[in-house]
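== Folding task for one protein ==

=== Format: two labelled lines per protein ===

==== Paired sequence and structure tokens ====
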Amino acid sequence: MPKVAILLPVFNGELYLREAIESVLSQTYTDFEFLIADDASIDSSKGIINDFAKRDARIKAWTNSRNKGLFGNYNECLQRAEAEYIKPFAQDDLLDPTMLELMVPLLDKDPELALVSCARRCVDEQGRERKILREFKENTKLTFDQVLKDNLLNLKNGIGEPTTVLFRKNYAGAGFDESFYHLGDIEYWFRVIERGKYLYFDQVLCSFRQHDDSTTSKNSKGLRFALDMVHLGRKYRTFLEQIGLTEENYSWLVARATATHVKFLSRHKGASLKDLLSVEHETPESAMRDLAGFKELLFYSLLIAGETIEENYALKQEWEAERNRLEDEIAKLMKSRSWQITKPLRGATKALRS
């Protein structure tokens, strides 16, 4: 049995797929199986996968009979994994050569750990570094409650994308929740970490590629991440109440964050109704769930807009009152005896200056 199972779900990934696979096969740690599931791609992905499978016996590749979506495809890989540790991966991303060599011993040495993740670099379409993403300045071990609080209150995935993560197979449970669009990874990391502890490893060991055609970009423009946040809030409402935050308060935070994101999109990347309505693998059930989620976001967004309008109106009234007061003071000053007496002096000063 191999030590590590690397899971790579693929859908129309021909642009970066060769580079991604080569980064796996270049690992200095070689005791792994490499599971690649093509999700009924219509580009050349299947041929690329088959070329590599012929050259390396560690690759186990297949094509799904129907398109199952990102998290459904991850689960296909997870069900076939036989190794002790699970290493998710993504078709746009890259692993540094020593990633497994450095991360596997972390789980080997500490039986308390359920999952580890690492710092990562963001790269563009050409693989050029944009920035380094670090959650902590040093290696940091956290409990389940600490992980929940940090990520839920800050509305983020501080653990990282699938490419950053390594976890124990016996904590895998039922796999990814396929009802999520974008945050199915952090929701799954929560369930894995509930079984043990989480270690953040402060070394940059992988690259997360950002480009307009990525799933992340599509979910960003379609606001699917916001629906997932609302979903997470419902799922962990008991925990949120324990730390003093009601489900309503949490939805309000999500609505504010979503409004800020929409403003960013409209300024820098363009936001359109077409992007919002474009959904892959939509079903009647998911459409009804989305409608309910967007209604909730709309309600809290309108509340925020109403509060902002009231605040602006109150500030305007205060400003007008202050302006009127200053105008009255100036009028009184100009009618005063001292103003009249000093009028010749002001005229002489003006003449000298001119």
